[in-house]
Each structure stands twice: as structure tokens, then as C-alpha cells.
């Protein structure tokens, strides 16, 4: 399904993809007949609970969100086919050797580029797709509903708090850390929220003049990445040094 139809579908549902209004038809008409069924309060079938809108729960005003057209352009950029050539998302997921029942938190999930792949790899697990941008959370929420992805939860987080659930087995951070302003504080908060034995997977762009990635000034040297994680209480436990051409792929563990 095209991105436009995903976003437009959310408007049809009502406020940010939350549950549609319980009543239908012309609001100016009166029902022809009244019955106990029509006057009884509406209840939900337990098998089909009401849609829980992640933005509505946070009190986000839909009027303040960016236009659909602008969001579509950014999503198209994140999902561009040529990205898979060097980002190798399927290979990255496979390299983590997930058992299928873990809880994976994708921090800075964006359009869900990795999050939906994780969901497919976790038939008995769940994915928390977290982002600080309401428009991205809305998009992932709508896509999960439209595609019937029941083990993915899109959630809005504060820029200063990763808000990692206590039971998370894997925290995944791809091309995000260089955007964080106070990295030591953010990582300390993140590590403090992780359980012992949980893994943190970090992907960041390598230094040097590369065809992909942020400006050189924004890049974080590999040694600095390891130092930052160590200071937060996370030890380097693995690395896929040759998988990605433009990025480091490091795995840390909470002691």
C-alpha cells in the first residue's frame, strides 16, 4: 500500500487513527425505531478491542502536525529502494540471531524501516517502535493497523528519555546517536532502564568521505562510541565489522 493511502486512512479513522465515532449516518436524522439494543451503551467485542492511538494518549494536537505531503517525502526518503543496497536491513536483522520471542525496542524508528522487519522476525515477541516525531509514530501506527501487524507498538518518546521498557531484550539504535545532543546523559538514562543481560545494538556511520551519511563533523569515531557506551555501563560484546560498507555495527551488553 502506498504511503499516501496509509496516511489518508488515518484521517478517515478520525483523530490520529484512533477509534472512529461510534455512531454513523446523517447526524441530523432520527432513528426510525428505538430498541433495547440501540439504547444500550456500546461495548466492544473482546476479540476486537478499541484502537489505542499512541498520540491521543500523549495529548498531541493533530492540528500541530506537519502536512501529509511533507511527511510523505521524508518517509519516501527513508524507504528508498537504493538504501537497502548499503543498509542491508534483512542481513542486519539476521545477524542478530533472534530467537523469535524477544522484546526489541527500536529507538528512533522513523518510518519503521527496521521495526517492521523485526516484527516479522518475532512471531512470539514484540517490537516497541519509538520515535520523538509524532508524524513518524502516526505513520507506523497506521501501517501496523492496515497490515495487521499485531506485535508492533508505535510509541512517542521524549528526546531526553529513551523510555526503554524494563523487560526489553534488545535495544536497537541505527543512525540516531549522532543526533542526540547530550549523549552521556541520554545513554546513562538508557542503560539504567535496561535489564541485566540485555543487548544494545548500535549502528553509526564510519568516518571518512563516504557516499552515504551525515557531514564529517556529525560523525562519531568508533573509539568514541565504545567509550560512551562503557561510561554508561555497557560492555562491547560483539561486532559485525564487514557487513555494512558505510557503518559500524556494534553490539553491547548490560552487565
Task: Reconstruct the topology from this structure.
Blueprint: H1 3-13, H2 36-39, H3 54-57, H4 68-78, H5 83-87, H6 89-95, E1 103-107, H7 115-121, E2 126-131, H8 134-147, E3 152-156, E4 170-174, H9 183-193, E5 199-205, H10 222-231, E6 234-239, E7 247-254
Parallel strand pairs: 1-2, 1-4, 2-3, 4-5
Antiparallel strand pairs: 5-7, 6-7
Structural notes for this entry:
The structure is a single chain. The chain is globular and about 40 Å long. It starts with a helix and ends with a strand. The protein is built from ten helices and seven strands. Helix 1 (3-13) crosses helix 4 (68-78) and helix 1 (3-13) packs across helix 8 (134-147). With 255 residues, the protein is of the alpha/beta class.
**Shape call:** globular
Fraction of residues in helix: 25-40%
- Write the CATH architecture name: 3-Layer(aba) Sandwich
Compute the separation of the termini in Å.
43 Å
How much of the sequence lies in strands comes to 15-25%
State the CATH superfamily name: Vaccinia Virus protein VP39
Residue stretches low in confidence (pLDDT < 50, at least 5 long) are 1-44
List the strand order in the largest sheet.
3-2-1-4-5-7-6
Count of the domains: 1
List keywords for this structure.
255 residues; Rossmann fold; globular; alpha/beta; seven-stranded mixed β-sheet
Question: Briefly, what is this?
Answer:
With 255 residues, the chain is of the alpha/beta class. It is 33% helix and 16% strand.
Amino acid at each position: 500500500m502506498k504511503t499516501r493511502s496509509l496516511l489518508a486512512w488515518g484521517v478517515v479513522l478520525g483523530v490520529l487513527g484512533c477509534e472512529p465515532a461510534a455512531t454513523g449516518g446523517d447526524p441530523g436524522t432520527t432513528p426510525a425505531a428505538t430498541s433495547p439494543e440501540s439504547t444500550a451503551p456500546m461495548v466492544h467485542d473482546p476479540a476486537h478491542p478499541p484502537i489505542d492511538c499512541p498520540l491521543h494518549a500523549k495529548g498531541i494536537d493533530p492540528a500541530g502536525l506537519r502536512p501529509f505531503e511533507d511527511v510523505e517525502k521524508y518517509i519516501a526518503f527513508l524507504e528508498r529502494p537504493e538504501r537497502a543496497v548499503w543498509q542491508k536491513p534483512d542481513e542486519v536483522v539476521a545477524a542478530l540471531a533472534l530467537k523469535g520471542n524477544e522484546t526489541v525496542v527500536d529507538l528512533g524508528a522513523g518510518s519503521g524501516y527496521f521495526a517492521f522487519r523485526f516484527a516479522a522476525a518475532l512471531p512470539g515477541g514484540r517490537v516497541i517502535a519509538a520515535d520523538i516525531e509524532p508524524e513518524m509514530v502516526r505513520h507506523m501506527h497506521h501501517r501496523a493497523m492496515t497490515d495487521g501487524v499485531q506485535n508492533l507498538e508505535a510509541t512517542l518518546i521524549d528526546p531526553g528519555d529513551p523510555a526503554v521498557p524494563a523487560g526489553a531484550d534488545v535495544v536497537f539504535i541505527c543512525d540516531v546517536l549522532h543526533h542526540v545532543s547530550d549523549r552521556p546523559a541520554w545513554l546513562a538514562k538508557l542503560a539504567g532502564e535496561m535489564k541485566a543481560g540485555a543487548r544494545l545494538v548500535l549502528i553509526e556511520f564510519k568516518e571518512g568521505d563516504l557516499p552515504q551519511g551525515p557531514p564529517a563533523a556529525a560523525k562519531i569515531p568508533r573509539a568514541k562510541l565504545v567509550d560512551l557506551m562503557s561510561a554508561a555501563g555497557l560492555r562491547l560484546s560483539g561486532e559485525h565489522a564487514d557487513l555494512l560498507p558505510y557503518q559500524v555495527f556494534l553490539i553491547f551488553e548490560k552487565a
